[in-house]
Amino acid sequence: MLLCVLGGHAQQPSNFYKGLVRSNGQPVPDASVKIDKKTIRADENGAFTFSGVSGSSVDVSVSALGFQHLRQALTLGKAGEVYTFSMQGRETAIDEVSVLGFTPVKEVNRQAYNVTAIDATKLYNTTMNIANALDRVAGVRVRESGGVGSNFNLSLNGFSGNHVRYFIDGIPMDNMGSSFQINNIPINLAERVEVYKGVVPIWLGSDALGGAINIVTSMKPRNFVDASYSYGSFNTHRTVVNLGTTSKSGFTFLLNAYQNFSDNDYKVTLSVADINTGAYSENIKLRRFHDQYHNEAVVAQVGVVNKPYADRLLVGFTAGKNYKEIQADARMKVAYGGIHRRGTTLMPTLKYQKMNLIDGLDVTVNANYNFGTEKNIDTLDRRFGWFGESKPNPGGERSKQLYVYKNNEGIATLAANYKVTEKQSIALSSTATTFKREGENELNPQANNYEVTKRTFKNMMGLGYSYDVKDVWSATLFGKYIFQSNKDGDRPTMNMNRFGYGLATTYFLDPEFQLKASYELTNRMATAYELFGDVENQDANPDLKPERSHNINLGAYYGWKINEDHRFRIGGNLIYRYAFDFIFTRLNNNQSKLIADNREGVSTRGADMEFNYSYKNFLTLGGSLTYQYLQNKQEIEPGYTGVSPLFNAQMPNIPYLFGNTDLGLVFRDFGKKGNVLNVNYNLLYVHRFWLYWPTMGGTSADDKKREVPGQLAHDLRIGYSLNNGRYNIGAEIRNIADAQLYDNFGLQKPGRSFAVNLRYYFQQVK
Amino acid sequence: MKNTKWASLALAASVSVSAYSCKSDSPDLPTNKGNYVLAVTPIASTGVADYLVTVDNLESGSTTILGNGVEQDGTYRYYVTHNNKFFSMLYGQGNPGAVTTYSVQEGKLKKLSDFQSETVQAFAPVNEDILMLKIPRSNTNPLANYYKVNTNSLLISGEGTLDVQKVAGNGESAFFTWIKQVGSKVYAPYMSIQACCNAAFETAYPDSAWVAVYSYPDMKLEKVIKDNRMSFVGRYFTDGLGVDEKGDVYAFSSSIGTKNKVITSTKPSAILKIASGSTEFDKNYYFNVEAVSAGKNITDWIYVGQGKFVVLMTTKEEKGAYESGKHIGIVDVYNKTFKDVTGMPDLDLIKDITTNNYSAKDGSAYIGVAMKDATSFVYRINASTATATQGLRVEGGSITAVTRVD
């Protein structure tokens, strides 16, 4: 296809011409200009160049945000001539922003990578956290193990756990501690959330092979205050305050503080055992009684912006703490009444960013180190029942301990991007991470002589080359080299090297029809938590091997409209992956904790589709559906010589069919001019799946094969913003039908819940 | 424009079609029914579920767990039969877990109930109960818990604690290897363990055998029987006692006391006797098994009647504190003789041999043999001829228990 386009140019000698897009004499930025069939984007001053044959007639059509569409025929004169196109303003301009304009979110969606961006600003009046927002993206499924503060496992096109890595402004979140995770960061902290499926760009410097989530916080120079508070079911309180100021001299100060508190005392339906007789009573609906969670964090950053030596130079400090009661084991089979954990995050940070350090060279440097301390507390010699009753039980509830430890994690990243020519650029990144855990059980000093230090060090270097013909096609070729060294006490140090590479390309058939394709040979190293456990509900597996996989993604997106009112966009992706030493999470042999493990081979074939429709600026309707088929490709099991009966079987306990739909209504000037009422309805569907190997055992009702049932959740949100968005009131009902929802390994999630949210937002652009 | 739109719709359609075209066909289900209950664990690694299948014949035919069998929650499960019931117990570390009880009706497993029990390290039928012990392995906790499960009501009918440091009386802790009803009493052989120092199961006392004797149902410690002619009785999670038709008790030792990661027991693998009605080791009975078996040591056994045991063994070279044996022999404790069993598959082809096996005490035992080629068989071991005969074939997994429920 590419050859055809290039071939077309060679037919006749052509000249270059210049065009200017103007409205009332002022430049119109970023207009989209179509000359015959070729699309050109005008720059921010409205200027563009195009080629053509002198004396020929061309059809010119110009569209720009906020202006009426312009179309005219033009006969080309002599080479180098300048043509001006005058556009008429349109009154409804502002309303079109979210539909037509290339806001940053849409720009991200046009990258060569398989990427989706969520415009977080549209979700500010909700009580969502980042994880909730991600749950609505095609191919993404967030599995939380309960309410506020619970563990989560995000799956992205069949990859989950640490196949997916998380970033804030391009900085890996691996070491930010338990106070700072995507399921407890409020959506208001983000400007947008980028979801990279499959191939992860070099500048993120990651070894994630399933994809990456990058939370982008706002960088605009402005003074702003954004404060919100919400209260909801289960005694849930959340507060977020964002403050920022940037002086004319470039001094900037950013403060983000937030708090989450919840009793998480939602009702669950369980088989409840009498702790004295062991007798089970079936289908008992009861409240969780030991599941309080709260975290508080302050992120302060101070520095300068827009200086000759730095666009942004910020030093900061993150201080956070969290408290979490542990109600149950990994399967909710056992109730605990005293086990809890506490943790702190104390983390200095450094960010440096400079575009055009020398002409065409952009440099970003980040570093941080977490000095925080964690404590696991299991000191009650009691056995609890689900009604909160207890009896003596020597040796603690699970394993008696007062384990005090430090997970000291540090990270340093350097990313450089050099624009060689208008179309070519080279990216280089290096990310070094360290992990060190030292701890002791204060209740058993004798055992502390045998506590060992656990360390990992990892360095990832990436080099990429991009070729980009704006709005026609772009391609990126890259290589990644990873070194990791693990040390677990006295065991021999394990050093490993891996090299991977890939190619990602995107092609625009026309501005609204995009094709994407990528291939990558990816390597994913085991994380410190997979190797050494999390000292809570995840066991250590120090022998875990790095994973290597072939990943192929094909995607297509197309948008069209029926007159100006009805707009459609559909997209689809096909995924094929073959992973060697596939890392996945399973229950440990006792079914009480989780553990990471390797499968020699796992293939994934998957497809996802998304659909969006909008009517004027009143209604939006969207949906996504994902299917993924993960197959066990381990032919011979350890210790055996024959072909495993599970060779080619579908992998257990992984949701394989799920989707969501979203309906939004916007009532403008509702009640008063400038006030807006938003109504949003979301439906989430997850098809039933088997907990253990699908091909094993009988599936008749008598056989009672364990499954996670199909789930359907309806959520409704209402938001009302006053005074052009300065004051906002939100209310939401989640799980309206009070359906039984499950997650991680059949854990029950809350039933119907309510929340209200109040937000104040004030911004002053200098 | 129109073309591209239809192209994209076609692409989207092909995406969704290919998504649904992956479908697995279900295998033909065998119609095995019977009173033998086999536990089978899938070949694929750990952390998944066991399956129970019923068969009417262990000597021929085949069964499978592919599309057949009753799923159990997890693989670290232990199975015991008593009072015509089958108990499926979860080993859940420090956690309690559900015990599922089945009966066999018309050759099929019928779930009777679930009850919650603690994770235990020793359990055995005693009177109408199943007695279970949860044994500490850290010297910060001296108390073992016992639970009595009534096999009629299927509920815990009583519980209490046993002081394992007091039982050991040597500064270490007693870790019961198993329990067994002998007459009206409960015999609990144990290993002495240091219960600390990152090597809980090591000991400074590798050359003595002990049996704690408890009354029942009140579980009062009556005495501790000790003998220095052999090392401790049984091994971790292994029944080292056998009771014959006369009520005489025989006890084997693997001789695997350990310190600093090496075996420090100096006595040979041997068998001692506690005569019926006495609570002392018989001073006149000693059977040095290593001396008659070319140096092999017993790792597990099952009593098949008339003074004969089918024993699993390791050679001197294979011997280890947690090595379970694949060599099969016949021990006659009356005549103090030993014979190697012939007719078993080549040792190199065997993955595992089950330790939870069935005997009608008629001179033979049925044991499960998981082969490395991913199939599994039940073998009948005839004690008088010392021969093994291949029987039932099991597809899809490795046999972990062979039991019978009437």
Report on this structure.
Chain B: InterPro entries: DUF4374 (IPR025401). Chain A: It is found in: Cell outer membrane. Chain A: GO terms for molecular function: siderophore uptake transmembrane transporter activity. Chain A: It comes from Sphingobacterium psychroaquaticum. The complex is a heterodimer of chains A (766) and B (406). Chain A has 766 residues and is mostly beta strands. Chain A is globular. Chain B is mainly β and 406 residues long. Chain B has a domain at 120-299. Chain B is 7% helix and 46% strand. In chain B, a hairpin with a 2-residue loop joins strand 7 (97-105) and strand 8. The longest helix of chain B has 19 residues, at 2-20. At the A-B interface, strand 35, strand 36, strand 37 and strand 38 of A face helix 1, strand 4, strand 7, strand 8 and strand 11 of B.
Secondary structure layout plus pairing:
The complex is a heterodimer of chains A (766) and B (406).
Chain A: H1 2-9, E1 15-23, E2 26-27, E3 32-35, E4 38-41, E5 47-52, E6 57-63, E7 70-75, E8 82-86, H2 104-109, E9 114-119, H3 130-134, E10 140-144, E11 152-156, E12 164-168, E13 171-172, E14 192-197, E15 211-216, E16 223-232, E17 236-246, E18 251-262, E19 267-273, E20 280-287, E21 293-305, E22 312-325, E23 340-354, E24 361-370, E25 374-378, E26 382-384, E27 390-392, E28 401-419, E29 424-441, E30 454-469, E31 473-488, E32 494-510, E33 513-524, H4 528-532, E34 538-539, E35 547-562, E36 566-587, E37 594-615, E38 619-632, E39 657-668, E40 676-686, E41 689-690, E42 707-708, E43 711-722, E44 727-734, E45 742-743, E46 747-748, E47 753-764
Parallel strand pairs in A: 1-8, 12-15, 34-37
Antiparallel strand pairs in A: 1-2, 1-5, 3-4, 3-6, 6-7, 9-14, 10-11, 12-13, 14-15, 16-17, 16-47, 17-18, 18-21, 19-20, 21-22, 22-23, 23-24, 23-25, 24-28, 25-28, 26-27, 28-29, 29-30, 30-31, 31-32, 32-33, 33-35, 35-36, 36-37, 37-38, 38-39, 39-40, 40-43, 41-42, 43-44, 44-47, 45-46
Chain B: H1 2-20, E1 36-42, E2 51-55, E3 62-64, E4 70-71, E5 77-82, E6 85-90, E7 97-105, E8 108-117, E9 122-126, E10 129-134, E11 143-150, E12 155-163, H2 164-168, E13 173-176, E14 180-182, E15 185-193, E16 209-214, E17 221-227, E18 241-243, E19 249-253, E20 258-259, E21 262-263, E22 270-274, E23 287-288, H3 289-292, E24 297-305, E25 308-314, E26 327-332, E27 337-340, E28 350-353, E29 358-359, E30 364-371, E31 376-382, E32 387-395, E33 397-404
